C-alpha cells in the first residue's frame, strides 16, 4: 500500500521515516554486514536462527531480525483494517483466550508493558494461540513459535503520531489497522507446517 | 523495629510510613533554553511526560512494595523489583540528565577545566576523542539505553559505558559514578532528529554541562591518591 494509505491512523510521515529510513537501514546494514561471510546470500530466517545464539546475539542478528520484523509488521496492517476477526481465527481466539475482548486486553497489555524497545505478538505453538512480548529485535521465530501478528513498540513506530502515548497507538492499531486476513493466512500456514 | 509500650512487645515493622516518595525535579532552565541543540518540544515531552511517568510509576511500585513488605509477601517483593528498576532507574537517570545539560549562556558546551580536563587527556587522549567514543558507543546502542562518561572510584579510572533501557550506571559496576549521561532512547531526539541519532549526539555537546561533571569528579577525588 502507498505511504499515505494508513492515514489518519498512521501518518504518511511516519511511514516515510519508519519504512524509508529505519527499515531500509536495517536491510542496507545487514547486506554490508554479511558481505563476504558464510551468511551472504542465505535466506533471512536462516540468518536470524543462526545469529540468535541462545540470546547471546551475534552482530548480524539485530539487522536481520529487524528487517524480518518490519516486513512482517507492514503486512500485519491494511487500510481499513482493525475491528474483530471472524471465522476460524475468532473461534480459536475465543478458545484460547476465553473471548476476543480478553485477547484484546492481553495483547494491549503486552504491547504497553514491553519496557523500552520491542514488539508484541500473537503467536502459534503446540496448537495454541498465545500473546508474547519481546525486547529489541527478538521475535517468536527464535523462541520456537509461529508469528501471526505483530505491533512495533519501538518509540520510532509511534512517536511522530502519538508522542509518549503508546496505549493510544496500540488501540488505534487494533481498532483501525490490523489485517485479520494476513493473520488468518499465516495461521493456515502455521497449522500446515505443524502437522 | 517499634516498641509497643503497652504490651512490652517489639515488632519488626519496617518504618515505611516515613518513606519518601519521588517527585519530579524542576528543570534548572527554561524549556527552550537548550535550543537549537534540543528543541523545546522535546524538553517539554521529555520532562513533563516521560520523566513524570517514571516518577508516578516508581511511586506506585513503592506503594505496592510497602504493602508487600508489611504483609510479608516476599514473592511480590521480588516480583516488584523489575518495576522498581525500570521506573526508579528512569527517575534517577533523568534527574542526573537535566543537570548534565545547561544553556550555552550558562556554560553549556564550555570545555572542562583541570583536574577533570587533564584526567580526560590522560585516559582518552583528548576531549575530542572522549566525545567521539561517547558518540560511537551511543550510536551503537541497540534499542533503548544510555551512554555514560563515568568515574571508577576503585580503579581510579575514567570510563565510557552504555546501559540498556533505564539501567543506571552502577549496574555496570558498583564503583562507577556517573559524570555525564546521554539519553539515547528515541524519545530523547525523535521529534527533532527523527532517525538521525548520530546528529543528535554530535549536537548535544554544545549544551553539555562540564561544570557539573567536574564538581562530581572533584568531590570523589578528594582524599584519593593522585589520580
From TrEMBL, chain A:
Keywords recorded for this protein, A-Z: Chloroplast, Iron, Metal-binding, Oxidoreductase, Plastid
SUPFAM superfamilies the UniProt entry points to: Fe,Mn superoxide dismutase (SOD), C-terminal domain, Fe,Mn superoxide dismutase (SOD), N-terminal domain
Enzyme class: oxidoreductase
Family matches, as InterPro entries: Mn/Fe_SOD, Mn/Fe_SOD_BS, Mn/Fe_SOD_C, Mn/Fe_SOD_N, Mn/Fe_SOD_N_sf, SOD_C_sf
GO CC, alphabetical: chloroplast
Top-rank taxon, per record: Eukaryota
The family this protein is said to belong to: Belongs to the iron/manganese superoxide dismutase family.
Name listed for the protein in its UniProt record: Superoxide dismutase
UniProtKB/TrEMBL annotation, chain B:
Top-level class of the enzyme under EC nomenclature: oxidoreductase
Single GO term (MF): superoxide dismutase activity
Keyword tags: Manganese, Metal-binding, Mitochondrion, Oxidoreductase
Positions that bind Mn(2+): 46, 94, 183, 187
Record carries keyword tRNA-binding: no
Compartment(s) of residence: Mitochondrion matrix
GO CC field: mitochondrial matrix; mitochondrion
Span of domain Manganese/iron superoxide dismutase C-terminal: 113-214
Cofactor: Mn(2+)
The EC number(s) this enzyme carries: 1.15.1.1
Catalytic activity from the UniProt record: 2 superoxide + 2 H(+) = H2O2 + O2
Presence of keyword Ligase: no
Alphabetized Pfam families for the sequence: Sod_Fe_C, Sod_Fe_N
Domain of life where this protein originates: Eukaryota
Domain Manganese/iron superoxide dismutase N-terminal: 23-102
PANTHER family per UniProt: SUPEROXIDE DISMUTASE 2, SUPEROXIDE DISMUTASE [MN] 2, MITOCHONDRIAL
Family assignment from sequence similarity: Belongs to the iron/manganese superoxide dismutase family.
UniProt function note: Destroys superoxide anion radicals which are normally produced within the cells and which are toxic to biological systems.
Summary of subunit composition and partner proteins: Homotetramer.
Annotated protein name in UniProt: Superoxide dismutase
Phylogenetic lineage: Eukaryota, Viridiplantae, Streptophyta, Embryophyta, Tracheophyta
